[in-house]
Amino acid sequence: MSRLWELTAVLSLSTNLAITSYILYNLWKTRWQCEVSDEPEARVLMFPDGGYQCNYWTAGHCHFENCTLLHHKTNKTRLKELLEGAVKSIDVCMFVLSCAVLLDALIEAHRKGVTVRIVCDNMKISGSAYKITEAGLDVRVDNSPSMMHHKFMIIDKEILLTGSYNWTASGAAYNRENVFITDEKYVLDQFISEFEKLWVTFEGSSEIRYEAITSCDVIRNRFVHRSNNKS
User: Residue 112 catalytic?
Assistant: First the structure.
């Protein structure tokens, strides 16, 4: 009888140890996952996409048998989805701002109540000025002799996107570009500070339509003149 009791006690102790070990392991695993989730996240989008995404395919089905457009998600579309995910604010600081897909996403975010602010360069705003100012977006322009050559965006003061990519359709389709995405606080804070500084610096410089067109004409003339001088 005593041997049976001893065996039962050993089995009970082993079972309790196994249960305790299982509970402790899950507690450790849960804590470790929480600690990992607090770490900054980062990813990179590389361009070119290799072409333009088919709007019919995006809507659900492309009925053109020989469609030459892309039938898969592009990195430009991933940028658009990030804009669509904004809840509170979008701050854009962009040298060239002409991609209709991304501009439409900004306008739609504005319509949903997201605060959208744009800082751009007067030499490169051109036709985009009509679209974004008519939609009521807050725009401030660098009209100084220097170029506002930044290319970054901040979403909800929590996510930073920066890199070589200007917001152009052809750039996404064919240029070798990159966009770095991170929520690392130190880096994010530097860009938030820079945006706020530029926003104050260019206060009162939102009248951009006609100046922008003149500036584009200047650029075009410079290009023609340079070409003529080389010939």
Answer: no
